[in-house]
Amino acid sequence: MQEARTVLVTGGAGGIGRAVAAAFAAAGDTVVIADRDAQRVRETAEALGVAGQVLDITDEPSIAQGLDAVEKELGPIGVLVNNAGLLTVHGALLDLSGADLETVLHTNVVGTFLMTQHVARRMVGHGAAGVIVNVSSIGGRQPTPGMGGYESSKAAVDALTRWAAIELAEHGIRVNAVAPGPVLTEMLAVGLPEGSPQRRAWEDRIPLRRLASVDDVAAAAVFLAGPGAGHITGTSLPVDGGQLLT
């Protein structure tokens, strides 16, 4: 049986992050959810029976203070799941403002980079092998009109995954990504109700004919962080029902 680890999940107060946190907790790990919204962190942590930490992935002092607090209470972080990101800013190539693109890139790319860097430095300092799992998207490989800013950020996350994997391998740190297609979060379910033409349009792009559940993504993250993936690093695993095949 694998020894319990301290697992930090960013953006863990809802959606995919909440499911990831619940899955690691069910596997016996000590889980900390990190998010900017203190109330949501508190409520979600209480609901899941895990620890919570207020943290802004784009702010280095916030990252340092948050990681200090986690390590003081729970010891070194063994697994980092970089789930926090911005999905809601979209626009066509001819319409999206430069400021909006910068916002997406700053959160999804710079934020993921900063969390990876800060946690990896601590892993190396402790002399302990660790695992980092990024949440990417198949959009980084398969474009959808109007979503190019977000998809460009996720292509960068895939590149960052490979960069970190090759440089951190000598320290025994594995770095991989989970790349979902559309995921049926509570928010998406409201915008794409079952049976709606919009929902069917998305499902028709997927050979398995259904959107991923948050639990599908969580299971992939747990696998990549576990001993069964002990010789896997630098990969971005699609969880897309075969959408990239089309």
TrEMBL record:
Keywords: NAD, Oxidoreductase. InterPro entries: KR_dom (IPR057326), NAD(P)-bd_dom_sf (IPR036291), SDR_fam (IPR002347). Residues 5-181 form the Ketoreductase domain. SMART domains: PKS_KR. One of its GO terms (molecular function) is oxidoreductase activity. The keyword NAD applies. Pfam families: adh_short_C2. It comes from the Bacteria. Belongs to the short-chain dehydrogenases/reductases (SDR) family. PANTHER family: DEHYDROGENASES, SHORT CHAIN, ESTRADIOL 17-BETA-DEHYDROGENASE 8-RELATED. This is SDR family oxidoreductase. It comes from Streptomyces chumphonensis. The lineage of its organism: Bacteria, Bacillati, Actinomycetota, Actinomycetes, Kitasatosporales.
